[in-house]
Each structure stands twice: as structure tokens, then as C-alpha cells.
């Protein structure tokens, strides 16, 4: 490798920067702080960072300033436009890193943007990894996320001591591969959510107890992590956000662009949630669309 980087990533030597302290990000960075790393946080709304300050995090006033204070910068934000602005903008992360610095984007974003960021990072003697995650807020809280990594395998391996605090990392290949893996994950998860919602609504319309139906099928072929995470919430009509429905619309939109017909259908149903003003509700709320289509309250 042309650019040297620290041979050992340790709490005492490696400075971590973090951007994105929403539903999942705040829990993820908390694990890193708990592991003893010196962490600096940037948030557009400084009020969101107060709890992390209490835990010992430093606060930066801009993405560039945060990068100047960090060896590795993680981003976990809303969408590709946010990623582009925060990393490639004039006051962004790549404007502030020192040579050999590393960016790790954990946002669900576009593979082509990940490749663009990687190319620009290498031009500036930095390293870039795309590492989106799956596991919802429960996985973030428990440190059990599935992390899909793209970029240089040596850099992903080098990052493993800090990333293991958030979950299990699987190296998928060159830059953009992590994002491609996440899109595939969302295709499968979106279809699972829609199928689960339809199964529950069908059971209810057939006069079955939906809770009993879930119990009956959970260990059969229909059982899944989606059912374990969201089945009970769907039955109880608990649509508290574990991941915003508007975000899965974004992810399935990228899949639909690749001519995946099932993803396009799932996207339509989740888009119905957003159209009903429910974009900030949890993805399990897709059952509300299925219920309305079946004349149920």
C-alpha cells in the first residue's frame, strides 16, 4: 500500500470521529465509547449530542473539523445526498483528514457513490470503506449488527477491532460491494415484511387469532428474523420506528432501478406509507397499508 496507516487500532492510539446519531447511530457510537476509544461527534443539531458528551465524547463544529481531530471517521446518516455533502463537500470529511485517514460510511447508499468516494479518497491519500448494516435498532443497541464491507480487504481487517463493537463484519469485495450487499438485503427484507403483513391480515380475516398464527408458523418454513423482529409489533399495530419507512423506500428504489420486479412492488406498498404521512414510522407499519387495502381499520 502506498500510504502508511497505523499498524494497530487501539483505544489508546486511534481517534474515532462519528457523524449521525439517530435511532441507530447513537447506540452504535456508544459501544465504541464504552470500548474506551476517544470519540469526536458532529451533529447538525448539537442538542442530540448531549448524552454522548456526558459519556465523554468531544464535539466538532463541522465535518471538516471532526476529520482533523480523527484517524477514522464513521458516517451513519439518512441518504446518499447526505453522504455526498458530508464527505465530498467543501467543508466535508475529505477536506479535513490527514494522509492515511480512513472514512467508513455505514449509511445505506448507492454503490456508485461509494466508488466515487473511494476514488477521491485514494486521490488524496486516504482510505474509504462502505459498510452499511442490517439488524434494526435492536441490533444497534445489542451490538449484533450484520455489517457488509466494501473496499480494501486490508483496511477492513485493520478496522475490525473497532467495528466488532457494533456487530459482525463480512468483507464483500471492492468499493461499492458493501452497498450492493445491503441493497440485496433490503430486497429480501422488504419482500419478507410484505409477506408477513399479508399473512397476518389473511389470518385475521379468516377468523384466526394473529398471535396464535405467529406462534404456529414461526418454526416452520415461514419463520424468519423479520418475523421475530416485527411480527408481534405488526399484530399490536406498534409502528414505533426501528428504521424509518422512508429509508426502505429509498433502498428499494435503488433495487427497482436494477429491474428487480419484486422490489418494485414492495416499494409501491412502502411508498403508500410515505404518501399517508407515515414516512417516519417503522418499516413494520407496512401492514397498515395492507390493512387498508383489505378494508380493515
From TrEMBL:
Residues 176-289 form the 3-hydroxyisobutyrate dehydrogenase-like NAD-binding domain. PANTHER family: 3-HYDROXYISOBUTYRATE DEHYDROGENASE-LIKE 1, MITOCHONDRIAL-RELATED, 3-HYDROXYISOBUTYRATE DEHYDROGENASE-LIKE 2, MITOCHONDRIAL-RELATED. This is 3-hydroxyisobutyrate dehydrogenase-like 3. One of its GO terms (molecular function) is oxidoreductase activity, acting on the CH-OH group of donors, NAD or NADP as acceptor. Keywords: Membrane, NAD, Oxidoreductase, Transmembrane, Transmembrane helix. Residues 15-173 form the 6-phosphogluconate dehydrogenase NADP-binding domain. Gene3D superfamilies: N-(1-d-carboxylethyl)-l-norvaline Dehydrogenase, domain 2 (1.10.1040.10), NAD(P)-binding Rossmann-like Domain (3.40.50.720). SUPFAM superfamilies: 6-phosphogluconate dehydrogenase C-terminal domain-like, NAD(P)-binding Rossmann-fold domains. The chain crosses the membrane at residues 16-43. The keyword Membrane applies. The active site is at residue 182. The lineage of its organism: Eukaryota, Viridiplantae, Streptophyta, Embryophyta, Tracheophyta.
Amino acid at each position: 500500500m502506498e500510504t502508511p496507516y497505523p499498524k494497530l487500532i487501539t483505544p489508546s492510539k486511534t481517534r474515532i470521529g462519528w457523524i449521525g446519531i439517530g435511532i441507530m447511530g447513537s447506540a452504535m457510537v456508544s459501544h465504541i465509547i464504552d470500548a474506551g476509544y476517544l470519540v469526536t461527534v458532529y451533529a447538525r443539531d448539537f442538542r442530540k449530542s448531549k448524552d454522548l458528551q456526558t459519556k465523554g465524547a468531544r464535539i466538532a463544529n463541522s465535518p471538516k473539523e471532526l476529520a482533523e481531530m480523527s484517524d477514522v471517521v464513521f458516517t451513519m446518516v439518512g441518504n446518499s445526498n447526505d453522504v455526498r455533502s458530508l464527505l465530498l463537500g467543501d467543508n466535508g470529511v475529505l477536506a479535513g483528514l490527514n494522509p492515511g485517514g480512513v472514512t467508513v460510511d455505514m449509511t445505506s447508499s448507492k454503490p456508485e457513490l461509494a466508488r466515487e468516494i473511494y476514488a477521491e479518497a485514494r486521490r488524496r491519500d486516504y482510505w474509504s470503506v462502505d459498510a452499511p448494516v442490517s439488524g434494526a435498532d435492536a441490533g444497534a443497541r445489542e451490538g449484533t449488527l450484520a455489517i457488509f464491507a466494501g473496499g480494501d480487504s486490508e483496511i477492513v481487517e485493520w478496522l475490525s477491532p473497532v467495528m466488532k463493537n457494533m456487530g459482525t463484519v463480512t468483507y464483500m469485495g471492492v468499493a461499492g460491494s458493501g452497498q450492493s450487499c445491503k441493497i440485496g438485503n433490503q430486497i429480501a427484507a422488504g419482500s419478507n415484511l410484505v409477506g408477513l403483513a399479508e399473512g397476518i391480515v389473511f389470518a385475521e380475516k379468516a377468523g384466526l387469532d394473529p398471535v396464535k398464527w405467529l406462534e404456529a408458523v414461526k418454526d416452520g418454513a415461514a419463520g424468519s428474523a423479520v418475523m421475530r423482529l416485527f411480527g408481534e409489533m405488526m399484530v399490536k399495530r406498534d409502528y414505533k420506528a426501528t428504521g424509518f419507512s422512508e429509508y426502505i423506500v429509498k433502498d428499494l428504489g435503488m433495487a427497482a432501478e436494477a429491474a428487480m420486479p419484486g422490489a418494485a412492488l414492495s416499494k409501491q406498498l412502502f411508498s403508500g406509507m410515505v404518501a399517508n404521512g407515515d414516512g417516519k414510522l417503522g418499516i413494520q407499519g407496512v401492514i397498515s397499508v395492507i390493512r387498508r387495502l383489505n378494508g380493515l381499520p
